[in-house]
Amino acid sequence: MYASREDIGYDFGDDSKVGNKPIKPNPNIDGGWAWMIVLSSFLVHILIMGSQMALGILNMEWLEEFNQSRGLTAWVSSLSMGITLIVGPFIGLFISMCGCRMTAIIGGILNALGWILSAYASNVHYLFLTFGVTAGIGSGMVYLPAVVMVGQYFQKRRALAQGLSTTGTGFGAFLMTALLKYLCTEFGWRNAMFIQGAISLNLCVCGALMRPLSPKDLREKYVVRSDSEENRAKALSHSTETIKSNGVLGEEPEKKEEAANEEVLGSVQQIEIGGKSGSGRSLYGLRILKTVSQLTVTVRKGFAIWYSSYFGAASLFTNRVFVAFIIWALFAYSSFVIPFIHLPEIVKQYNLSRQDNVFPLTSIIAIVHIFGKVILGIISDLPCISTWNVFLMANFTLVTCILTLPLMQTYVGLAVVCALIGFSSGYFSLMPVVTEDLVGTKHLANAYGIIICANGISALFGPPFAGWIYDITQKYDFSFYTAGLLYMVGIIFLLIQPCIQKKQPREKPTEEAQV
């Protein structure tokens, strides 16, 4: 169906010209420290995404504690999940200025603070601010760098690396569900959140492991990528036309910006040299001025890159397939989140609590989700398999399961559907790979930030919508049906855009070229 990279509108943004001189590959690309980055990302997914997938346990505690409607209470969980993803584009600005390591460390502190402050909540609205907003922003500041760093360190085995790192979501959902259930039973939900806040400080350690690649290392990665695609010479020659429309930044503005920055810093250095004969206080003031100037230059350069990527002439939104990908993301993620938040209530309604206590349905999703990510990642890395096709097939399976789940009212039936949901949702490990292939490595941080922002909007409104439908109908059936149908609309957009792009001419007529 879409077997080649051209079929899904790949942006060949990494087509740097390379001579015949052999370049020694960097050992940290696809090896060495790259596996430490995978470990760091794996732990981040356990502590952030795994904890969020276990919020159904706390949701039941909040319902009993504050006696609010299901729709209102569900906003606490959805705010945390949604904001984690919605802030993605803005976190891209932090990454441009501070780097992935510093952004992740600050985010780990914010996330832990949100959990700890939530232990003192007196009402649901207090949780909106502390857990939804504070912990959500902190989670977003750690999550995006964890994904971006894996994409930077891997080239040949990107799908496998992303699959291994994102299996932390499944492990985390399984472990955190059991942990929160135990902590709530033994110490109460308030102490459980306090303890979880202390555990979340380990996110700072994960951020410290995110050692940035040097510009030289990144250039070597691009060289390896271009060398492995020499057989695509025709596509690369056409890419010189499509790069401008798909949003690759030019080199001349960057050079002018760097020249202006060097001029500013050079003038400050001259002032500092001339003032060495002055008093120590004057030298101290000049050093402060130099530091402020360097910080200003960094902020200006980071903001310029971030702004041009989203709103400038090099906008990512000129890529039609990428826009379709965004529309899909607006509907997809809620279909995965709703079961995690409301399944404990559904089990209680069907009088299946005894079986669910032995092996929770959310744990079934989490465990199979691990295998789904790894297996789909391995399949996608096979040379004869298209990542795009694997991604679409997994989406079709997941939407079928969402529409089928309300028909199951026995534990065995629910367990089978939940297992299929867990396996098919393993396509999450392919999202960074598909995104990078659509826009190029240079724009991965900003592009993936947009995608997870759309996922965040979906997660923000999905669980409250399901709770609101229940408050009206006293059933969750219509919630799953509506979510499944909207999900199907997003998949249709993914199918239509590549077909339209196929029909459009890729090159100018030969007559014009001859003229």
From TrEMBL:
Keyword Transmembrane: yes
Superkingdom of origin organism: Eukaryota
Membrane spanning residue stretches: 33-55, 75-95, 102-120, 126-148, 160-180, 192-210, 321-341, 361-379, 386-405, 411-434, 446-466, 478-496
GO CC aspect terms: membrane
Membrane topology: Multi-pass membrane protein
Keyword annotations from UniProtKB, A to Z: Membrane, Transmembrane, Transmembrane helix
Compartments, record wording: Membrane
Molecular function (Gene Ontology), one example: monocarboxylic acid transmembrane transporter activity
Name of the featured protein: MOT14 protein
Organism: Melanocharis versteri
Lineage: Eukaryota, Metazoa, Chordata, Craniata, Vertebrata
